Amino acid sequence: MNQTIRPYLSRLEDLFSFSPVDAQTVVARFQEDMRRSLDGRASSLQMLPSYVGRPTGAEQGCFLALDLGGTNLRVLAVRLDGRGKAEITAVNRLAVPESVMRGSGEALFDFLAEGVAVFLEEHRLDRKQHRDLAFTFSFPVAQSAVNAGVLLNWTKGFTAAGVAGQNVVALFSDALRRKRIEEVSVTALVNDTVGTLAAKSYADPSCDMGVILGTGTNACYPEKNGRSAQGRFPQSRQEMILNLEWGNFDKLDANACDQALDRITLNPGRQRMEKMVSGMYIGELVRMILLDMTDRGILLEERHKPVLAGEQSVSSEHMSLTARGKDLFAAIGIPDASDRDRDAAARVCRIVSRRSARIVGAALAAVVAWMDASLEQKHTIAIDGALFEKYPGYPENMRSVLEELFARRADRISLCPTSDGSGIGAAIIAAVASSGREQDPAASRKQTRKNR
Ligand code: BGC
């Protein structure tokens, strides 16, 4: 590596360092924000009630699930056998076009309802049979019941107009009726983290945290009743899963690259942790750094700039290629980069992804220690998302922070890849909800009238 690249990269290394001391500071700040939120004071963490506790494993039945959380929509049929086993019996996947993500709310919900209509038809489901549907809607929602909740704000590049401030279950149910789908009722509204926790804890009672590390990032955990959370959820239950919305945590030290990225996003000032961690943003951080290096004349050539100037031209999938020894530049349309350039890009990816994983490790440690300060019990953390599952070295970087913070007790924390929280997990939540206790009374009344 030549003389000019070397000092640049070591400065970058400093800028993106996240030391063991930083991790300790973050744990303290994170727990302080958890406390503030539960006490009803201003906080960057939302701690949103889900109106359900963890499943027992005995939940059973057949459910539909609709999963909207990023650029793909999935419609699924799920069967739960009541003995901790669950299977997906049918699934359709479709891409959500950008025009739908950023158009009108009505068009977005019509798109979802159309997805259900096509699913019912393609899989020849009996249109006379009543079906409960779990709606995985992975955005910050203030729920007032397991089947009702108001979107607080969009994240992950969605901006569909007229949805923030509205009950998304009502908007979706209206769209189903517009499509004449009368037999489907939305019985549960589920965040993907909650679905992930449910999917794992259905068969493993030691699971007490759900984490998403994909396009966006977030986590949930079961909060014990009576410990705090004054007035935040009905006192009659033993525990309630709280959705932290940790992507919005804003007590991390953001560097100049983070500030520059935040400025070009659709939601500046918000989701600050998500912008340092998640798949949707870390590729952008890398792209901006590589472009800066090219601008300074220490990487690539002038003619390569247009590729790097295009927003989203580098993704976290591209970054993970470098960890497998592949060429990032070839993958983004620059086939003639030198070995020196490739090595520099691989190092930039390592610097950015390592910080991402270490921040997640610290946030995760904060939540585990919140539940069990001296780590007396075993904790299984259900984790879904490509960063964790497909980025070589990412889980190890998360673990290194747990070991720095908890030493040998870190062994008590297992990080478990868990897929299909937003399908199977959501169906489990629908089954938990079908006891009827958690339903929004207004929505249930409507349903009872309709079923008569
Ligand atoms: C959303 C969360 C979601 C996470 C992972 C974030 O942008 O605000 O609700 O759980 O992405 O999908």
Question: Can you characterise this structure?
Answer:
With 452 residues, this protein is an alpha/beta fold. It has two domains: 249 residues, Hexokinase, domain 1 (3-Layer(aba) Sandwich), CATH 3.40.367; 131 residues, Nucleotidyltransferase, domain 5. It is built from 17 helices and 13 strands. The strands form three sheets. It has a six-stranded mixed beta sheet, with helices on both faces. It has a five-stranded mixed beta sheet with strand order 4-3-2-5-8. Strands 6-7 form a two-stranded antiparallel ribbon. A hairpin with a 4-residue loop joins β3 and β4. α4 packs across α5 and α9 crosses α11. The longest helix has 33 residues. The chain is globular and about 70 Å long. The N and C termini lie far apart (75 Å). The chain binds beta-D-glucopyranose. Beta-D-glucopyranose binds next to α6 and β10.
Descriptive tags:
19% strand, globular, 6-stranded mixed beta sheet, 5-stranded mixed beta sheet, disordered C terminus, binds beta-D-glucopyranose, alpha/beta, Hexokinase, domain 1, Nucleotidyltransferase, domain 5, 17 helices, 452 residues
